[in-house]
Amino acid sequence: MQNATPAAVAVLALELAPAAAFGLARERIGQACARWPSSIRTALPALCALPYVLISWSYQMFSWQWCALYAALPVAIAWLLGQAAIADPQQRGTWRDAIILLTLGLAVDLRWFERAWPNGLAGWGKLLLVDGALYGFVAIRQLSGTGFDFHLRWSDWKTGLRELVFFAPLVLGLGIALGFLHPHGGTHWLSMGRLSMVPKWIYIFIFVAVPEELFFRAWVQNLLERRVGRRAALGITAVLFGLSHFNKRLDQFPAHHFNWRYVLLATIAGIFYGRAWREGRRVPASAITHASVDAIWSFWF
């Protein structure tokens, strides 16, 4: 966590708390929120702006415009999802769900809001968006079948590691053939951080795999299944997941602005992540596959 002061660490803990609460007590929180007046339920996520306020004041870069955005966007998400819950009680998905997911996906992938945060702390902004979306989909929309649950089961490990075994030989062979993966035996990674594999895996699981699997599998694939069926939803979500990597790792190919190699490999990965999620509709299962793939990549390639 580059540039992380004690204040930044405290704000990180503040941002992780809602996600942990939803992951551990999703149904109870949803039931409690359902008893509140609709005006309070809709206005409450304005508190998502608090992490931005604390960080920006600490780093002397506070902006009223950014503060207003981080207060208004979660409220807009809650309002739209409240309307979606009324208009679509069968939870087949509406244009409101699509608008929210498209906005969140583009905001993160195109880094719309990163300049609001100090260098090295852009991840705090992404977690803020995760909190706002979690509140909307869990407490307001009460979307079923997401599998966002931090009570890990043996079946999560079994499914997640099985898909890793299926996927790893394919991605390693194709990645090396395309010149995207370059084996280095772990020495490069060790020289960068000297961390063991387990802490690295845990870090990826919490800060990369779970948020991405929540978005692409629990929300996008989940809603698409209700419209186009399991197979089509798996394929469409995998393609969207792949495309979200078009501007990543461009330093490997400086002459290109579209990293098609990464898009291809991530699309294939998305198929196996989606398979892991849909077997038991469990985010931990696909996050285990996802975190394991990324950890192996960072350690040996």
Characterization of the model:
The structure is a single chain. By secondary structure, this protein is an all-alpha fold. About 75% of the residues lie in helices and about 0% in strands. It folds into 2 domains: about 5-140, no CATH class; about 155-300, no CATH class. The protein is globular, with a radius of gyration of 19 Å.
Short description:
This protein is mainly alpha-helical.
List keywords for this structure.
single chain; 73% helix; globular; 301 residues; mainly alpha
Strand proportion, as a percent range, falls in under 5%
Q: Largest sheet at a glance? A: none
Quick one: how many beta strands? 0
Q: Kindly state the mean pLDDT as a whole number?
A: 90
Into which percent range does the helicity of residues fall?
over 70%
Q: Which overall shape is indicated by the principal axes computed on the Cα atoms? A: globular
Helix count, DSSP H or I runs of 4 or more residues: 12
Low-pLDDT segments, ≥5 res: none
Query: Radius of gyration in whole Å, from Cα?
Result: 19 Å
Q: Order of SSEs, N→C?
A: HHHHHHHHHHHH
- Please, what is the oligomeric state? single chain
Class inferred from helices and paired strands: mainly alpha
What count of structural domains?
Answer: 2
Intertermini distance: 21 Å
